[in-house]
Amino acid sequence: MHPMTHWQRIEAALQGKPTDRAPVALWRHFPEDDLDPAKLVAHTLAWQRQWDFDLVKFMPSGTYGVEDWGAVSAYRGSPNGAREVVQPAVTRTEDWARIGPIDPRQGSYGRQNQALAAAARELAGEVPLLQTVFSPLTTARKLATEGLFADLRRAPAALERALGVITEVTIRFALDALDAGAHGVFFATQLASWRLLSAAEYERFGKAYDLRVLEALRGKARLSMLHAHGHDIMFELLADYPVQMLNWHDRAAGPTLAEAAPRFGGMLVGGLNENATLRSGPEAAIEAEVREALAQTGGRRLLLGPGCVMPIAVPAAHIAAVVRAAQAA
C-alpha cells in the first residue's frame, strides 16, 4: 500500500478501512512554558516535527478555563505536568452567583486560541489539530474543587445557573478555536465516573451541558475526540456523544478496547498504558502492548494513543518504540 497522508490514514481508520500503518498520536504537557503562548507554540511544533504524529492535541494548561473567573493554579511537580488549583474561585455556595459571563477572546481563554492559531499556520492543515476543551461540569469542579459535589446536591439551582454561563463561554471558545484553525476539539470530561456521581446526576449536570457544546459544533468541526477521565467511567452514557473519536484509560481502568469496539461507532483512541508500560518500558513491552491493542481491534478503527496525557519523563526511546511498532504492524 502506498504511504498515506495523516488525513488519509485517520479518515480510512475512522471508516474501518485498511491503512498503510496504524495511526498513532501521543501528547504531553509542557509545564510552566504552557503559560507563554509563544513557548507553547514552539513546543507544539517541535513535538510534531520530531514525531510526525497523525493527530496534534493542542496542550494548553489544564487550568486555563478557570483563571479568568479568579481561580489560582500552580505547577507543583505533578509527573504528568498538570497544574493544580491552589485557590478556588468558588469557596462557598453563594460564590456560584459570581460566575458571570466573560469574553473568551481575552485573558487566559484568549491566549489559548491565539497560540493555537499560530501553531495552525505552521502546521498548514497537514495534520488534524484539536483544541483541548473541558466540559462545563469539569470547569465547575476546577472552580470549586471538591466543594462542587456538596453544592451539586444541596444547591442544584445555583450550580445550574453557573453551568449555563460556563457552557456559553465554552461554546464561544470552541467555535473560536475552529476559526483559529482547529479541525475539532478534544472534549474532556473528568466527572463521568461512577466513583463521583450517579448516572442521574451526570445526566443532569454533565451530559446535558456536554451535548449543548458538542451540538454547537455539529457541522462545523471536522473531527472531535471525547476524553473520559478516570476509573469506572459511565461508558454507556458517553457512547452516543456526537464525536468521531473516544479516548479513555482503557489499560488502567477499562473497558478494554475489545469490549468498547462494538459499543462505539467511531474510532477508539488508546492502547497504551501511559503511567506504566509507556513510562517504565522496556521497549519490548511497549511494542508488545501496541501489537496486543491492534489485535484487540483487528487493527481497525483505532488510533494508538495514551489513556490520558503521558508523564513528562517518558523517554524518547519509549515513544520511538510506539512509532516503530505501529509502522511494523
Describe the structure.
By secondary structure, this protein is an alpha/beta fold. The protein has a single domain (6-328), classed as TIM Barrel (Alpha-Beta Barrel), CATH 3.20.20.210. It is built from 13 helices and 9 strands. The chain has a 7-stranded parallel beta sheet with strand order 1-4-5-6-7-8-9. A two-stranded antiparallel ribbon has the order 2-3. Helix 5 packs across helix 7, helix 6 crosses helix 7 and helix 7 runs parallel beside helix 8 (199-217). The longest helix is centred in the middle third of the chain and has 25 residues, at 156-180.
In short:
By secondary structure, the protein is of the alpha/beta class. 44% of the residues lie in helices and 12% in strands.
Features of the shown structure:
9 strands; 13 helices; 12% strand; seven-stranded parallel sheet; TIM Barrel; two-stranded antiparallel ribbon; alpha/beta; 329 residues
